[in-house]
Design a protein that fits this description.
The complex is a heterodimer of chains A (117) and B (113). By secondary structure, chain A is mainly beta. Helices cover 0% and strands 53% of the residues of chain A. In chain A, the strands form 2 sheets. In chain A, strands 2, 4, 5, 6, 9, 10 and 11 form a 7-stranded mixed β-sheet that branches. Chain A has a 4-stranded antiparallel β-sheet with strand order 1-3-8-7, with no helix packed on it. In chain A, strand 5 and strand 6 form a beta hairpin. Chain A is globular, with a radius of gyration of 13 Å. By secondary structure, chain B is mainly beta. Classes of the chains: A mainly beta (117), B mainly beta (113). Chains A and B meet through strand 5, strand 9 and strand 10 of A and strand 4, strand 5 and strand 9 of B.
Chain lengths: 117, 113
């Protein structure tokens, strides 16, 4: 298996522009998570999906952030408009069980390094 | 509120040394605890997952222990190698919040040849 795939790996954009990050989870995994990593705050969960349905988006910082999972093999995280403080590494992770069982490993993608100028 | 702390923040050891990384958590009601490795500029690689009913998990030179009652976990690395240099993070899921992982800040390990 190729593991969790994220694109792009690096994104540099200007303040105010729309940014879309993409994720393909491991085939057969039921749950998908979006995390953000910064030096100041470490790793934080933004949102997660069970069977393509958003369950908890309490970590999404603002209305400028939105996430979708139109099918079991694809998810997007969109920031519109982007701001310099959104600069971070964004990780996507997936797991086999439904998030709630709590006993399955999460597998992470390589991340997207976002820089907003 | 669950908080996860890792000590030390950074560690430098000579090659061949055995070492222990520490992770503590404030709420002992956890399903499991997961240890990850992160190389610079890369994603997280899952190393070990210990279920709440277990006390230890081993994988090669790595051994992770879990003591729920004291809110602590340790990651033991035997015969360290320069290739072990990375940041090691521990994480616990919040109960009844479906897999939401709370991460420690990590321990940055450097193994000198």
């Amino acid at each position: 298996d190729a593991g969790v795939i994220q694109s792009p790996r690096h994104e540099v954009t200007e303040m105010g522009q729309e940014v879309t990050l993409r994720c393909k989870p491991i085939s057969g995994h039921n749950s998908l998570f979006w995390y953000r990593q910064t030096m100041m705050r470490g790793l934080e969960l933004l949102i997660y999906f069970n069977n393509n349905v958003p369950i908890d988006d309490s970590g999404m910082p603002e209305d400028r952030f939105s996430a979708k999972m139109p099918n079991a093999s694809f998810s997007t995280l969109k920031i519109q408009p982007s701001e310099p403080r959104d600069s971070a590494v964004y990780f996507c992770a997936s797991r086999q069980g439904l998030a709630g069982a709590g006993d399955n490993e999460q597998f992470f993608g390589p991340g997207t390094r976002l820089t907003v100028l | 509120k669950q908080e996860v702390t890792q000590i030390p923040a950074a560690l430098s050891v000579p090659e061949g040394e055995n070492l222990v990384l520490n992770c503590s958590f404030t709420d002992s009601a956890i399903y499991n605890l997961q240890w990850f490795r992160q190389d610079p500029g890369k994603g997280l690689t899952s190393l070990l997952l210990i279920q709440s009913s277990q006390r230890e998990q081993t994988s090669g030179r790595l051994n992770a222990s879990l003591d729920k009652s004291s809110g602590r976990s340790t990651l033991y690395i035997a015969a360290s190698q320069p290739g072990d240099s990375a940041t090691y993070l521990c994480a616990v899921p919040l109960p009844n919040q479906g897999g939401k992982l709370i991460f420690g800040q990590g321990t940055e390990l450097s193994v000198k040849p």
